[in-house]
Amino acid sequence: MARDIGFTQVSASHEVSKLAKLVGRGDTTVVDAYLSPILRRYVDQVAEALDAGRAVERLLFMQSNGGLTDARLFQGKDAILSGPAGGIVGMVKTGEAAGFDRLIGFDMGGTSTDVSHYAGAYERSFETEVAGVRMRAPMMDIHTVAAGGGSVCTFRDGRFQVGPDSAGADPGPACYRRGGPLTVTDCNVMLGKLHPDHLPPVFGPNGDQPLDADVVREKFAALSREVAEATGEPAQPPETVAEGFLRIAVENMANAIKKISVQRGHDVTRYTLQYFGGAGGQHACLVADALGMERVLVHPFAGVLSAYGMGLAEIRELTEVQLDLPLAEAARAEAAEAALRGKALAKLREQGLAETALSCRVSAHLRYDGSHQALEVPFGSASDMQAAFEQAHRQRFGFALPGRPLVIEMLSAEAIGATGEAPAALVPEGGAPKEKARLRLVADGERVEAPLYDRAELPAGWRAEGPLIVTEPTGTNVVEPGWVARVDDLGNLVLERTGASIRAPAAGTNVDPVTLEVMGNLFMSVADQMGATLANTSWSVNIKERLDFSCAIFDANGDLVANAPHVPVHLGSMSESIRTVMRENASDIRPGDAFMLNSPYNGGRHLPDVTVVTPVFVGDEIPFWLGARGHHADIGGRTPGSTPPDSRHIDEEGVLIDNVRLVDRGRLLEDAARRVLTSGRYPARNVDQNLADLTAQVAANETGRQALMKVVNTYGLDVVRAYTGHVQDNAEESVRQVIGTLRNGSFSYPMDHGATVEVAITVDRAAREAVIDFTGTSPQHDGNYNAPFSICRAVVLYVFRTMVGKDIPLNEGCLKPLRIVAPEGSMLNPRWPAAVIAGTTEVSQAVANALYGALGVVAGSQATMNNFVWGNDRYQNYETIAGGTGAGPGFDGCDAVQSHMTNTRMTDPEILEKRFPVRLETFGIRRGSGGAGRWHGGDGVLRRMRFLEPVTVTVLSGHRRIPPFGVDGGAPGAVGRNRAELPDGQVVELGGNDEIELPGGGVFVMETPGGGGWGRAE
User: Among 952, 901, 876, 683, which Cα is nearest to 787's?
Assistant: First the structure.
């Protein structure tokens, strides 16, 4: 209809993407509708100009999937990553021509670095987030980190920091003569790796001056003095400062490569690093050193390899079909495979390709039944696909489950039209190359002399040991000491390590601002690797889809050192779980052991949150601990999902696990764990899923242990142990600085069920300390509105971390200047056997709002997790539902987001409806629910779900009676509402903490609160 009435661009989601997941497909459709008209105008202009000049017979464009397509078929959704995709094609074509079939792509430009992995086949992602937009279209699998030549170098909060801000092209780095800041490029100028005499004079306001090395030296010298004044240490030479920043940038890029290699089970030391992009040549050897890689490949067109790769690419057509078919019924997939193959090949025939040039391969994307992690294998017989899947699963995750049923989630076909293009040999004529100059540069803290060569003069067979510099029109290549360079028969520069890696300079146990940043990032990277393993290997929707988990590193005392950016309420409360295991197993902990617990009285939160704790042995001592906490969909209890609204005793909420050995010297105690999970008055309902998620948590900790041991082997135990303390000290100092700006405050926060959170914050500005006193808070609740003290501690940690307003780690140091008083026997420090299910979700949010109220910085958020739990004997699911956040001085609240103590993701509607007998009829913003004011509060949401079979629905929610507060004349947000609509038309109003048995066809509706406004509306 739209086309009939004159719309020239119509993007229909079923045409844009054939894949399940409503949100990603919707985003992709919007992107396509926005970009395609703009792209079409550009393509038509280019085609018209080329046709007028008879310049080409045919116009092709590069797609994000790595294939070319005819200009008339080029769509906006396929253009997003077309440039980087060309680089990957160029890397693969030139790398394989040089004899290397295992490649890590390292594409470093001015603002960021793209990294990629290749081991015989292009890796594509069918779900990619680009600039916050979720795309459901096949794209080359590329990971980006904000570390480029223009990344800004600063000294803040006692640490050297590189990025994420970039100087861009204008003003650019300081050496560009446009008044820019110090950047990674300036580090290389300072170290002599980029020399003004050997770069074109294209800088300055008029683009006619050489690089300015003098201003770089002046700025680094000034920065050195600033660091000395801040730390009380002697000023360092400018070169040392520059090398410190460069080391941080290199580690950041190495950590990015770990995400696409080590985290997926690939041994990166067996790969060749192939750099491309203008800035890669100055850092390739250093990045390879940081990863233990032995070889770097530099093509003659490395600086423009993305463009060259487009010229080498084939015409490709990728198409997919969603199946969700049991592998046991693979014969039914054969017709779909044939149709898909025919469709892909037909698209290439339409582009005029000869039949002899065409080929096609079809892949099946398999996953275990109940899991969401699909792996791509060649389509074939059921037995062949199963064998290939299990091999791939072992490679990626370290294990396989041969008895578990498999599902063919989708098929993808890739039709290829061979172009006949191959990388050309680009070798200059023979002759002995001459040194163009001898330069003095700094490498590994030493000043050395290095010859400089013009690459155009280097013949095949040439060989020289580093340090040396090779210049070419599109880049500068630095061969570090311990590396040798040679030219192969195709003109490639091949760099190979001849000695031990020089990447880890001797580091003492005393704090220095460079190693502090490096170690902090390494600790974060370890926790991030743990989280990736847990998300990949878990089974439940809660952990895999909603990401309701957290992973963290702790020191020998059980203090939090580093965590990945996971759920805030988990992170501040895990330390006590670690200390419980330490205390109760002091004489009986061995390498390979792991323990599990969920006790709210020993660092746990509520019973569904099970923590797996693993010691990290170095010799006979345990300098580190690892924790992986995941929200299990059901751990028993009176109701499915372990969330009874009227529980009065902890046993009613599920199985209490208090320090149980889960792994004994590397052996999973599955039978013992099963006995625990099936014990008690109300045992777990889906023990197999519990065990699968526990196994994933164990695997996550093992990933962390291996990664942490690599750090220890590189830097030494004494240094790593010292820096687990230094990163906490750094966070502590940042919080102390904030405390010095605060004033005393208090707040009384009433809750719907009649209890009140009372808090008084007393600030000692001279000592830069504060007391957070909850005296006066309501006594322990007879029901389940009780928050364990560990939760109170986690909320205080979260709130004061956010008050810092800078990029500091969330660790135990944030709490050291704070003394928390929560009277025992109050609802913020309950005694056994208090029920806690509502307290850990609802009371934690109330405490956060009360603290912000006492600090006077933001109006009330929805202050509830809107827990919506439903299930029966066959299914259980748990959601926390978004709402509005509070406004503040100078900003509006946000609509429809998770806030404060939870940040879990909603399950995609199509996945939800596929996995469970439900229909999601409405999910949208509840307009007008945010409080009015000069700055208005964020709006809540409306969620309406129909159940197709009988279920028990449990809701735990807040602000159904008392609205979220406004500040300074701002209006409060609207209260929330819960109701059930029965098939006979009856509407049942539900309380904030309620339960109902819904028959098939029944509907549950939730309207979540809005945030409070700030200031009187003008």
Answer: 901
